[in-house]
Design the sequence.
């Protein structure tokens, strides 16, 4: 009986070993490394495949890991296209000269802020940084009107932060761009004091905590709130915008680029062409991901106000570079 | 009367190994395997030092580093000691039950190993949202890792010599002193398990991220966010590796001399009854906390209604991939661990012990760094050949989980003393026939144990998987992660459940191994 | 023709030279007991014969063929030697039948052979049991059956009866050794138990200081030890200081003449306990006081204090007369006594 069991186990393992290795990724398809939320990418990829009959191998992971991976993969990277959730990650790849320049006509289809430096990437979707708060504890009149106000002592114990989130460092970078390094350090230190004990790993956690009444307010990209609201319909968690034109109304851009050594460059260009096309942008708007398209002619997503209503900040993502400086600041105050 | 002979580790061994057929390639093979397992460390060192000295210093000499050191070392010590205590108590409680009861309850107590630590931590967070910081991290890690001590301790108890305890009792020894006596016999099993716990805590990331507790390893992942490349992360990884060297160094003298004991088997009927109530209570609470909470969280998530922001994915394809990758890794690790474990039987066993301890160091390297090391290596030396293939992923798993397999095989190797092979040879069997007919069958329990443990661990591996998995493929853990990070908890839950169910299979196998009666030759601890 | 010939074998283990130029030779069909204290190298010797270790110097031949030494080495599986270790070492994963038949090739195993062997060792019907289900004595006997199954040219027993309960030991021992004798198997029995060695063996080899200190029939080794230390080691002995002069030895227990000429000076006389006759005082017997008494029923042992002799003497006698603590008795000597010069060398006998 025991012998039977042993040989079964061992042959099971051997079978697993062999069959697991039988699967090799098909080589004649487009490989996309995506740090974007899977729901959006899945829709875009499906539509692209239906339209062009080019099979796409989609690889989803967090953008930090993906970028490190592409850097480690260097010249033999199987990635054709890289899509990131925020611009700094893509700018990091650009700084390492790993991206191929894109055709000008593709870049012309998207708004100026969604064009990468030296034509190295284009924005697929964008979103605005907003405020989320607990409606039971805070009245709209009590809310900060600008992101600078978050440092005020009256928010002590109410503020929550997720410094590791990829949409936070662009906010810090924008702040630094506007106010300079020293002021940024002061602001971060004060916010850290306000958020003591409420440093969380991601935005979803911030929203959950607000819903539970553990937190008063936090700042994040608007689409997180929309998705949270759609999933759970918590009446308690509300969203508010900062005053128009403020530093805090940072536009976050999800960027797509083609790698320099892409094995399937033609297909890659077709993919980016699709992403920036009217059809692709319509999918972005209607995807249910609650992000704004980057093409000016594309429709506004249902249920969302036009992005211009927010009075977005003038600091463009391209200017922020790879966000290294912002991250160094975060490390300096030990938020990271 | 039973005999207790004290033997220093690596005591008298025959010197005829010199002429044995196997021995000529055993040592080189074992060393080659160990070097292969340690190769990620090479990547670590190269990457860490590729950045300038001053940059390295800037990363390492910060006030944050001091805090991380306190957090990490404090947590490792607290968890190791607590897990040692809880694991020993669980083993003692199990021992008090009848063998049939124990066989039934054992899987419940071992199963926490099959649950990814981040899931355990997620479960606790769901129940007690206010949970965070050192205490929370300690609680979660103890509950997730105590089986690593409990299992070997239980095996040791089964092999324990009870007559010595009876003599002590008749001499009027108090409960406390008898407890000390028990501990002396299972000491090396407990300390060995605690070492594994320490290394697991050093390498843990996901659970601490959820609980908001900073250790060196969480900082390593943060470094990826900062630098988008591996240099800073590797520098910090070096610190973690140094800490693990320390842990390994401490374990050796702590584990005491190797004891040869005549096992007296499970407790007799009469001695059992009075202490059973307490045992049931203790085990029940432990199972409820260690297993019930995460499972409850999964159930809660599944019932809380899935929001449809992500298309529901089938469980079966990832299940198949998870199972086959994990099974492949289990087989490779077990095969590779045998020569290294067998090396401890040779000569004074010293070389084998050193080789074995060194391979433990790979546990301190985060899976992500190992994966990037493989990436770098295939790029540098293979022009990308084999990258992101299933083979490479299995190879990465094999490296990461090698120490688990080694520890499991080691116990059986210790029991299959070389003198059985000698005896077989005197009866006319050639060296290879002696190995095949005598030693190998005696290694079966350890082999089974290794296969099961590595399978369980590989099932829940996440960070290396995300880097190396063939594009378009997915595992249970990668799917769970995808849904969880996008707050689709309802859709994440089935994958977590599938992981636990799949993990239950080898766990039951493991518990059968422990039901074996000890041999008259005694258990070597 | 000697079955086994060991010549000038030396073996070092670690820093210790365990065997020093040891030589031994055994006849076919004989039972040789190797008697030595713990750590004397008995197990090392057995292991060398079995082929588990290799000699540093010297040679070992079996049946005329050199199996070890002079650049040759025959591995253990080709020597055809049955080895029974101290704790039986039955293979735990095999039942009794499979253990016994382990050394015999599948095809060559005659039907019923296993049953036959088990009957021989007195364990019929235990084929399906496993090692942990057997008692110590049973396991030991299965190990012997296992060794016999291969029709060995030589059987090596390493203190095989040490782990048995006292009551069982004698009977198991006689049965097993009797069986080996009946089968005509050459046997080497390693033991530290003198009773065992003396009572069962054809020849006794005393292992001391890394080599064979004395080799001969039991009565030879007992009655004519080659050194005082051996006299004290094999059986008990009273070592009495005396002085010799002109074929006359003067001891506190009387004067004797020697058979051969010995040098003048102080000597040691070996008096076995049974050679010390105990009787009533007087009649020229030397007076002594009984300090302690051990009564065994079939005989008794007395510890006696004799004036002029510092250590107490041990006497063994029948129980026709019973003595008690404090009795005054008269002692006389009987039988040939071994004499050694003070430095331990030289030997000659005396007539009392």
Sequence:
């Amino acid at each position: 009986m025991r012998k039977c069991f042993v040989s079964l186990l061992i042959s099971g393992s051997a079978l697993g070993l062999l069959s697991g290795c039988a699967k090799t990724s098909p080589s004649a398809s487009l490989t996309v490394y995506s740090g974007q939320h899977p729901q959006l990418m899945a829709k875009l990829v499906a539509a692209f495949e239906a339209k062009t009959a080019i099979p796409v191998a989609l690889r989803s992971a967090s953008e930090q890991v993906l970028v490190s991976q592409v850097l480690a993969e260097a010249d033999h990277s199987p990635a054709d296209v890289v899509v990131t959730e925020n611009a700094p990650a893509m700018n990091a790849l650009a700084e390492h000269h790993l991206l191929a320049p894109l055709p000008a006509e593709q870049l012309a289809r998207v708004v100026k802020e969604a064009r990468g430096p030296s034509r190295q990437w284009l924005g697929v979707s964008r979103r605005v940084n907003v405020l989320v708060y607990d409606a039971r504890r805070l009245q709209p009149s009590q809310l900060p009107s600008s992101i600078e106000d978050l440092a005020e002592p009256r928010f002590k114990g109410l503020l929550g932060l997720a410094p590791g989130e990829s949409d936070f460092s662009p906010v810090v970078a924008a702040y630094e761009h506007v106010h300079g390094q020293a002021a940024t350090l002061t602001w971060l230190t004060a916010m850290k004091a306000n958020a003591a004990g409420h440093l969380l790993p991601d935005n979803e956690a911030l929203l959950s905590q607000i819903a539970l009444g553990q937190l008063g307010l936090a700042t994040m990209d608007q689409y997180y709130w929309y998705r949270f609201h759609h999933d759970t319909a918590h009446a308690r968690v509300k969203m508010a915008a900062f005053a128009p034109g403020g530093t805090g109304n940072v536009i976050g851009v999800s960027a797509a680029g083609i790698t320099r050594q892409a094995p399937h460059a033609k297909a890659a260009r077709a993919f980016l062409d699709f992403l920036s096309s009217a059809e692709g942008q319509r999918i972005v708007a209607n995807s249910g991901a609650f992000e704004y398209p980057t093409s000016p002619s594309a429709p506004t997503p249902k249920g969302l106000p036009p992005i211009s209503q927010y009075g977005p900040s003038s600091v463009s993502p391209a200017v922020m570079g790879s966000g290294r400086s912002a991250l160094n600041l975060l490390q300096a105050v030990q938020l990271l | 009367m039973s005999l207790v002979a004290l033997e220093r580790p690596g005591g008298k061994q025959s010197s005829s190994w010199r002429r044995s057929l196997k021995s000529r390639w055993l040592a080189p093979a074992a060393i080659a395997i160990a070097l292969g397992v340690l190769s990620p460390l090479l990547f670590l060192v190269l990457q860490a030092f590729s950045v300038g000295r001053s940059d390295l210093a800037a990363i390492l000499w910060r006030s944050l580093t001091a805090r991380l050191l306190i957090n990490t070392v404090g947590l490792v010590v607290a968890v190791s000691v607590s897990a040692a205590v809880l694991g020993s108590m669980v083993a003692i409680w199990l021992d008090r039950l009848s063998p049939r009861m124990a066989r039934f309850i054992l899987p419940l107590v071992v199963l926490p190993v099959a649950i990814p630590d981040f899931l355990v931590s997620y479960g606790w967070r769901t129940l007690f949202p206010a949970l965070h910081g050192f205490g929370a991290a300690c609680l979660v890690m103890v509950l997730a890792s105590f089986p690593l001590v409990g299992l070997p301790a239980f095996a040791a108890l089964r092999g324990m010599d009870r007559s010595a305890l009876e003599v002590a009792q008749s001499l009027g020894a108090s409960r406390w002193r008898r407890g000390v006596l028990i501990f002396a016999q299972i000491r090396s099993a407990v300390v060995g398990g605690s070492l594994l716990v320490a290394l697991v805590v050093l390498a843990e990331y996901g659970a601490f991220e959820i609980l908001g507790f900073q250790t060196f390893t969480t900082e390593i992942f943060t470094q990826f966010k900062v630098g988008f490349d591996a240099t800073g992360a590797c520098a910090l990884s070096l610190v973690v590796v140094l800490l693990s060297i320390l842990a390994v160094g401490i374990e050796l003298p702590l584990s005491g001399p190797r004891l040869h004991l005549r096992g007296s088997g499970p407790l007799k009927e009469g001695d059992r009854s009075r202490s059973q109530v307490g045992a049931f209570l203790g085990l029940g609470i432990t199972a409820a906390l260690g297993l019930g909470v995460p499972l409850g969280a999964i159930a809660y998530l599944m019932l809380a209604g899935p929001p449809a922001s992500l298309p529901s994915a089938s469980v079966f394809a990832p299940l198949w991939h998870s199972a086959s990758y994990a099974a492949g890794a289990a087989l490779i690790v077990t095969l590779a661990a045998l020569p290294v474990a067998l090396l401890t039987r040779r000569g004074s066993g010293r070389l084998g012990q050193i080789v074995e301890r060194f391979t433990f160091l790979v546990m301190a390297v985060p899976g992500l760094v190992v994966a990037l090391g493989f990436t770098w290596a295939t790029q540098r030396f293979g022009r990308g050949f084999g990258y992101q293939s299933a083979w490479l992923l299995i190879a990465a798993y094999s490296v990461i989980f090698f120490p688990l397999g080694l520890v499991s095989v080691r116990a059986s190797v210790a029991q299959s003393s070389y003198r059985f092979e000698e005896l077989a040879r005197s009866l006319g069997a050639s060296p290879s026939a002696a190995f095949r007919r005598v030693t190998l069958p005696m290694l079966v329990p350890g082999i089974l144990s290794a296969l099961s443990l590595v399978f369980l661990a590989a099932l829940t591996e996440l960070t290396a998987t995300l880097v190396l998995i063939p594009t378009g493929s997915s595992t249970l853990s990668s799917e769970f992660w995808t849904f969880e990070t996008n707050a689709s908890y309802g859709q994440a839950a089935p994958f977590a459940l599938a992981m636990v169910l799949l993990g239950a299979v080898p766990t039951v196998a493991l518990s059968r191994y422990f039901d074996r009666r000890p041999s008259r030759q005694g258990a070597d601890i | 023709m000697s079955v086994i010939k060991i010549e000038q074998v030396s073996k070092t283990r670690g820093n210790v030279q365990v065997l020093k130029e040891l030589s031994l030779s055994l006849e076919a069909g004989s039972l040789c007991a190797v008697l030595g204290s713990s750590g004397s190298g008995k197990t090392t010797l057995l292991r060398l014969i079995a082929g588990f270790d290799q000699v540093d110097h010297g040679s070992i031949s079996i049946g005329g063929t050199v199996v070890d030494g002079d650049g040759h080495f025959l591995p253990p599986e080709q020597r055809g030697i049955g080895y029974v270790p101290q704790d039986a070492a039955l293979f735990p994963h095999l039942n009794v039948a499979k253990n016994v038949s382990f050394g015999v090739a599948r095809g060559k195993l005659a039907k019923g052979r296993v049953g036959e062997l088990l009957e021989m060792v007195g364990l019929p019907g235990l084929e399906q049991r496993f090692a942990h289900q057997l008692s110590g004595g049973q396991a030991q006997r299965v190990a012997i059956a296992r060794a016999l199954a291969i029709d060995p040219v030589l059987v090596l027993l390493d203190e095989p009866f040490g782990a048995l309960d006292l009551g069982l030991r004698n009977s198991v021992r006689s049965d097993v050794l009797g069986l080996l004798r009946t089968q005509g198997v050459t046997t080497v029995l390693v033991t530290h138990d003198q009773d065992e060695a003396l009572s069962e063996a054809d020849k006794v080899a005393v292992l001391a200081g890394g080599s064979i200190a004395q080799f001969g029939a039991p009565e030879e080794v007992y009655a004519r030890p080659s050194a005082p230390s051996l006299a004290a080691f094999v059986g008990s002995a009273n070592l009495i200081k005396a002085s010799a002069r002109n074929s006359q030895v003067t001891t506190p227990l009387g004067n004797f003449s020697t058979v051969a000429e010995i040098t003048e000076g102080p000597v040691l006389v070996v008096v076995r306990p049974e050679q010390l006759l105990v009787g009533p005082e007087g009649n020229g017997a030397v007076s002594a006081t009984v300090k302690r008494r051990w009564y065994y029923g079939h005989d008794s042992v007395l510890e006696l204090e004799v004036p002029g002799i510092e250590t107490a003497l041990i006497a063994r006698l029948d129980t026709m007369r019973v003595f008690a603590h404090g009795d005054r008795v008269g002692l006389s000597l009987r039988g040939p006594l071994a004499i050694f010069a003070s430095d331990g060398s030289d030997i000659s006998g005396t007539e009392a």
In short: The CA atoms of residues 293 and 302 of chain C lie 5 Å apart. DSSP finds eight helices and 22 strands in chain C.
